[in-house]
């Protein structure tokens, strides 16, 4: 089945593409019944907006990227949850990109698929970090220094160790997300 486009919604609703766009984006220029009709048609057709196209038009994706090469421990789960909560509070989604392929990571960052990036420091070479800085891409490079030699959940021996790792992840995630969102907001 082909993807339903805004043109399909306009044709089915018997209105212009601009009218569909205004209805979907809640622009206050339409009559209430026109807007309601367009939204009903869009729902009936199961129309889903193209997020990439929307991001290109607005030059903002409202997505923050967390780029890492690992998510297997308790630390990363708490880190991601914390960053997600901070992003969500500011109207952003979080994309978690897990890869040890530096080229793919750079493609996502330089391709502006995200408005900003939180990057685990061991993921990128210094040359690529310099490129991100030169391109003035909002980014926070996250140092991961956990003060315990027992990181794997399976090796935890006490609740105190678990609490310490959770607290460290929460602290670093909150700080990184807030710093990145501040950078993004000041560059608007």
Show the helix and strand layout.
Elements: H1 6-13, H2 17-24, H3 32-44, H4 51-58, E1 63-68, H5 74-89, E2 93-98, H6 102-110, E3 116-120, H7 126-134, E4 139-142, H8 159-186
Parallel strand pairs: 1-2, 1-3, 3-4
Strand content: 5-15%
The helix/strand order is HHHHEHEHEHEH
* Count of DSSP H/I helices: 8
What form results from the Cα inertia axes?
Answer: elongated
Give a written overview of the molecule.
This protein is α/β, with parallel strands linked by helices and 188 residues long. The chain is built from eight helices and four strands; from the N terminus they run H-H-H-H-E-H-E-H-E-H-E-H. Strands 2-1-3-4 form a four-stranded parallel beta sheet, covered by helices on one side. Helix 2 crosses helix 3 and helix 5 packs parallel to helix 8. It starts with 5 loop residues before the first helix and ends with a helix. The relative contact order is 0.13. About 7% of the residues have low confidence.
């Amino acid at each position: 089945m082909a993807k339903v486009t805004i043109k399909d919604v306009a044709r089915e609703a018997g209105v212009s593409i601009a009218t569909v766009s205004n209805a979907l984006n809640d622009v206050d220029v339409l009559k209430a019944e026109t807007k309601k009709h367009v939204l009903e048609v869009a729902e009936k057709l199961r129309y889903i907006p193209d997020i990439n196209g929307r991001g290109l038009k607005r030059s903002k994706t409202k997505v923050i990227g967390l780029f890492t090469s690992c998510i297997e421990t308790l630390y990363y789960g708490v880190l991601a949850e914390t960053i997600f909560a901070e992003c969500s509070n500011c109207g952003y989604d979080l994309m978690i990109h897990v890869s040890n392929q530096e080229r793919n990571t750079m493609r996502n960052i330089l391709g502006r698929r995200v408005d900003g990036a939180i990057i685990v420091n061991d993921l990128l070479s210094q040359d690529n970090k310099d490129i991100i800085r030169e391109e003035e891409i909002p980014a926070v490079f996250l140092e991961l220094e956990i003060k315990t030699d027992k990181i794997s959940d399976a090796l935890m021996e006490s609740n105190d160790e678990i609490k310490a790792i959770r607290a460290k992840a929460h602290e670093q995630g909150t700080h990184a997300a807030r710093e990145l969102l501040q950078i993004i907001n000041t560059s608007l």
